[in-house]
From TrEMBL:
Domain of life: Bacteria
UniProt entry tagged with the keyword Phosphoprotein: no
Keyword set includes ATP-binding: no
Gene Ontology biological-process annotations: porphyrin-containing compound biosynthetic process
Keywords, alphabetical: 4Fe-4S, Chaperone, Cytoplasm, Heme, Iron, Iron-sulfur, Metal-binding, S-adenosyl-L-methionine
Family affiliation: Belongs to the anaerobic coproporphyrinogen-III oxidase family. HemW subfamily.
Domain Radical SAM core: 1-227
Annotated function: Probably acts as a heme chaperone, transferring heme to an unknown acceptor. Binds one molecule of heme per monomer, possibly covalently. Binds 1 [4Fe-4S] cluster. The cluster is coordinated with 3 cysteines and an exchangeable S-adenosyl-L-methionine.
Gene Ontology annotations for the cellular component aspect, listed alphabetically: cytoplasm
Main localization, broad class: cytoplasm
Molecular-function GO term, any one: 4 iron, 4 sulfur cluster binding
Gene expressing this chain: hemW
UniProt-recorded name of the protein: Heme chaperone HemW
Xref: InterPro entries: Aldolase_TIM, Coproporphyrinogen-III_oxidase, Elp3/MiaA/NifB-like_rSAM, HemN_C, HemW-like, rSAM, rSAM_sf
Organism: Candidatus Pullichristensenella excrementigallinarum
Length: 368
């Protein structure tokens, strides 16, 4: 059987966060049942017993907003349509302001074994200003309840570089996160998307050097607590790296279901419409693109250099039929001399300083 990962998009939320440009829609409760009927029908239509599903990820939006029974039914549909590995990692994104113990127990009964809490910050002022619906106290309580419900694989999502945020503000958030003893932390720098409310506050953003110090601080503090960096923005205790996200970084095959979901299958990428009305009307599999060898090379460089393990030179040779160094001799020499990359046996990886300049290094390696 071929391994496959499944992503399921739940596009509903209570309110739109100030930084969000994802396909998420508040005030659409009247469409919930129709959406899940369409979602389950899409999964059944794509079912294929040749694939063994190793990871499932319910993202959003706010999946934890909708009744737990709807999520359980969809996970059961995945089981019916595909061969779901008994050891599959099954993740659910949840907002601390939308969960309670009964919901969390229902998730565990349904088969969810990993929960990702969108905490973002433990600063009450910052949470209000970015439009989050929960408080720091609710975030801590959500962790306690998740443990009581039986979740032993728990991630906390954090953000830094927020308007008005100082390095010391972020230090305090990291301290509170570490005290909750999660198995995994994702710490993302704010990306200001055009058209979002936060884009009107760029004059309040911390200086670039302070944002960089926040990233360095996260790496130091989390490592000291046993959460080791394994990707630019992700940290985990041994054995708890997110298997689903590793599929993306290693260019494994995945199938996305729901509005705005993307897929990579059979050497092609395709997506569903992000508009709820178009998805409910039955539009599927748009913008299909067969990935050329050149595009595959670019993707491999971009994604693998995000990870601490780096780019496998033998896999490159096997997949593309050439040595990675071919045509890149001078740029590799320059990057090595600047200590931005290291070549260790079969792996080309970015150094910690190189990770701070990943975009520029990727461009240099792609251009050769």
């Amino acid at each position: 059987m071929q391994p496959l990962s499944v992503y399921i998009h739940i596009p509903f939320c209570l309110s739109k966060c100030a930084y969000c440009d994802f396909a998420s829609f508040p005030g659409q409760e009247a469409h919930w049942e129709a959406y899940f009927r369409a979602l389950n029908a899409e999964i059944r239509a794509a079912g294929d017993a040749r694939y063994r599903v190793e990871t499932v990820f319910f993202g959003g939006g706010t999946p934890s907003l909708v009744p737990a029974e709807l999520l359980a039914d969809t996970l059961a549909t995945v089981r019916e349509a595909f061969c779901l590995s008994p050891a599959a990692e099954i993740s659910l994104e949840a907002n601390p302001g939308t969960i309670h113990l009964q919901k969390l127990r229902a998730y565990r009964r349904a088969g969810f074994n990993r929960i990702s809490l969108g905490v973002q910050s433990f600063d009450a002022r910052l949470l209000r200003e970015i439009g989050r619906i929960h408080t720091p106290e609710q975030a801590a309580e959500a962790v306690r309840l998740a443990r009581e419900a039986g979740f032993e694989n728990l991630n906390l999502d954090l953000m830094y570089g927020l308007p008005g945020q100082s390095v010391e503000d972020f230090r305090a958030t990291l301290s509170r996160a570490i005290a909750l003893q999660p198995e995994h932390v994702s710490a993302y720098a704010l990306i200001v998307e055009e058209g979002t409310p936060i884009a009107r506050r760029t004059d309040e953003l911390p200086p670039e050097e302070e944002v960089l110090e926040m990233q360095r601080l996260a790496t130091r503090m989390l490592a000291a607590s046993g959460l080791v960096r394994y990707e630019i923005s992700n940290y985990a205790r041994p054995g708890f790296a997110c298997r689903h996200n590793r599929v993306y970084w290693h260019r494994g095959e995945y199938r996305g279901f729901g509005a705005a979901a993307h897929s990579f299958l059979g050497g092609a990428r395709f997506e569903n419409p992000s508009e709820l009305s178009r998805y409910l009307s039955g539009e599927r599999g748009l913008n299909r693109e067969e990935i050329s060898p050149e595009s595959a090379m670019e993707e491999a460089i971009l994604l693998a250099t995000r990870t601490v393990e780096g780019l496998s030179l033998s896999r490159w040779r096997s997949e593309f039929g050439s040595e990675f160094s071919q045509g890149r001799e001078q740029i590799l020499k320059d990057l090595l001399s600047q200590e931005l990359i290291a070549i260790d046996g079969d792996a080309l990886r970015l150094t910690p300083r190189g990770m701070e300049l990943q975009n520029a290094i990727v461009l240099a390696l792609v251009d050769g």
